[in-house]
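Q: Structure tokens for this one, please.
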Amino acid sequence: MKKNNIKYWIIGLVLSICACDNENITGYKEIDDNYTFKKPEVVFKEDILLKRYFLDSKSDSVYTIIKNSKGEVSRGWAYKFIRIGNWFFENKKQLDSIYNYVNYCGGIHHINTIQYFVEGKPQYEKGYWYELHYDTLNLKENKPIDVEIKVNYDKNLYERNIALYFFRESISNADYCYFKELKKDSLPSFGKDYYSFEITPKYKGIHSINGFYILLPKKQSNANQMVDLKPVFFKFDLDVK
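A: Here is the predicted structure, written as tokens:
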């Protein structure tokens, strides 16, 4: 992009930032309704605008928004400068993809799932991600509820999913580096890429369910003829009334 165009783009961004009634909001309802931030840190570098929203002065969790002059936006949470959770990638205000990041062996930006979109519609034959289905209106104490997990992945990259496992204890902000050593239970598939199970919450409040499933990649050509299995981690919270 020409320097003059970049200059005008930056001036427009500065004016839009200054015109905001409340500089402490991100402009994304699902974030602003649930978090209160300090005044953001704003950094310009060439045609990149970086805004970082801190929960407080001592917090390591920062909500980050990155924009460029092409209309591309990426946003999500970072913990100690490492991406965590869902990051949304948009192109000219259209959702392009969602990348989910987890803490894995201390690495930087470890991708757990990738979900692609075209005109707002998820692409089931691209990336690798899962769908979770359950009746949110009937989450009650001591009442059984059916939960379904549908596994989606690129059939050109992966042959199939092998198995699904639940960790016996809930994990919060975990480093999944040692997930093989954690106690877990397996669940057979009730379809090629479909799992179903029933749970009965024993108390009111948040019930966290953690686990992972394994994708088998297409055959790879390498020296030792080994295939690197792809673990995909999941975590969801049931708010029992």
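A few notes: The CA atoms of residues 105 and 233 lie 14 Å apart. Helices lie at 3-18, 29-32.
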